[in-house]
Amino acid sequence: METQANTDIFPILILNGRPAAGKSELIAYLNALQPDARRERFRIGELKEVDDFPMLWTWFEEDDILQRRFNLPRLHSDDQGFFLYPELWHLLIVRLSNDYAKLLRDQPDLHQTHTVLIEFSRGTEHGGYRAAYPHLSDAVLDDGAILYIDVPYEESLRKNRRRFNPEKPDSILEHGLPDWKLERMYRAVDFHELAAGHDDAIPIRDRRVPYAIFDNRDDLTTTLGPAFESRLETTLDTLWQRRAAAKQR
User: Fold this and answer.
1) What pLDDT shows up at residue 159?
2) pLDDT greater at residue 126 or residue 226
3) Which residues of 160-183 are buried (b: 16+ CB within 10 A; e: fewer)?
4) Domain definitions of the chain by residue range
5) What's the confidence (pLDDT) of residue 107?
6) Suppose 239 and one of 34, 78, 173, 212 were both cysteines; which one would form an S-S bond, judging by CB atoms 3.0 to 4.6 Å apart?
7) What strands lie across the sheet with 144-150, from one edge to the other?
């Protein structure tokens, strides 16, 4: 069942891409805009962010506390920080959907004024987007549109190295992965494979969810200048048109 949404803004943007692809920089840019400009240029309302990284980081912290302080087994991850069960990746997706449901429960008219950004990255090492998307709730799939920020692995590696602050490993903007772990987890991604043959919407369960790709291979999200703004506006306009077409089917 669809929510009562402002017809001039995206209700939900599902924001995907490799680590350090530019997702956090894009969100920071949108948050800094005046509300009228954000709505008129990009069809995005006030932002509510739902990100799986804080959830994941909490699990790692809890595991370290259990192991080091209480000499108990880790619940979620091994000593190298890999999940004990691949299903935990899917659990994060379910939790994202649950957090969205809570937002809507507490503010039923949320989408009159707000766009919810649901952010996560998935590599094929842990199932990829093909495995992740089906765990999104019906409500997210019904109102959602996917914005994929596209960078090659080498660019993800470069920017992951640059942004990492060892003093703030839990920070949304400054966390990072060791090179060897990034390669294992995110060198291979399946988004383009999943979208192949589907020009405007990706089949997910019994739904078709519109998508658009923001090409960031030239790293426009570092400077956030006029070229970035123009490309983002064009990409989101394409996504808006695809969403409108999907609603008419």
Assistant:
1) 81
2) 226
3) beebbeeeeeeebeebbbeeeebb
4) 12-248
5) 96
6) 212
7) 46-51, 114-119, 12-17, 144-150, 207-215, 201-204
Residue in the structure block whose two tokens are 């937002």: 103
- What does residue 180 show for φ and ψ, rounded to 5 degrees? -65, -35
Please tell me whether residue 51 adopts helix, strand or coil conformation.
strand
pTM above 0.85, yes or no: yes
Q: Over 70: is that where the pLDDT of 169 sits?
A: no
The region, left, alpha or beta by phi > 0 then psi within -120 to 50, assigned to residue 226 is alpha
pLDDT at 183: 86
Q: How far apart are CA 35 and CA 37, in angstroms?
A: 6
3-state secondary structure 108-155: CCHHHCEEEEEECCCCHHHCHHHHHHHHCCHHHHHHEEEEEEECCHHH
- Find where tokens 């990034």 sit: 182
Nearest to 133, CA basis, from 246, 210, 59, 200: 210
Give bridge partners of residue 47 from the DSSP assignment: 115
CATH class, 12-248 region: alpha beta
pLDDT (tens digit per residue) in 89-109: 999 999 999 999 999 999 999
Secondary structure (DSSP) of 32-43: HS-HHHHHHHH-
Judged by DSSP in three states, 181 sits in: helix
